[in-house]
Amino acid sequence: MPLDASRSSMPAAPRxxxxxxxxxxxxxxxxxxxxxHEQALEAGLIWxxxxxxNPQTLGLEVSTPRGDWRTLWHPCSxx
Length: 79
Hints:
By secondary structure, the protein is of the alpha+beta class. It is built from 2 helices and 3 strands; from the N terminus they run H-E-H-E-E. A 3-stranded antiparallel β-sheet has the order 1-2-3, covered by helices on one side.
């Protein structure tokens, strides 16, 4: 089946990133959308440093073109 040219020329929706808490749910404090994974990680690292927490307890998700979320990495349960 040939590729639909009208769909292939549509611009991709911008991706956004969000941080996950140790339970795999959106982080209750850092509940925001970030324009890049670098911005998300920086916010998470700063927050963990101030709180004295292990940044490995954070995970990261990216939005998909359909509006779903895809996990880039899971949080580590070790604190």
